[in-house]
Amino acid sequence: MNEAFVVHLLRETFYTMLLISAPTLLVSMIVGLIVSIFQAATSIQEFTLSFVPKLLLIAIVLVLIMPWIIETMTSFTVSLFQQIPAMVR
Fold it and tell me: What is the DSSP-derived secondary structure letter of residue 43?
């Protein structure tokens, strides 16, 4: 196992992590921005007004993309297991 292999493995790991977390983070960011604009326009400063919509939409997004997340994690894990012989050499 050389330095290039470790760098490649870390790069693939971070890329997969970013790919899996991006949809929920983007939904959270967009909903937070919309709620913040609404709060600024109406002068309503209620904490639950930003928390509840984020929670609901993130739950919906996770349910919708769960098959894709499982497929991505499975393919990454299979790829990782296939690279184990290269780690031993």
Answer: T
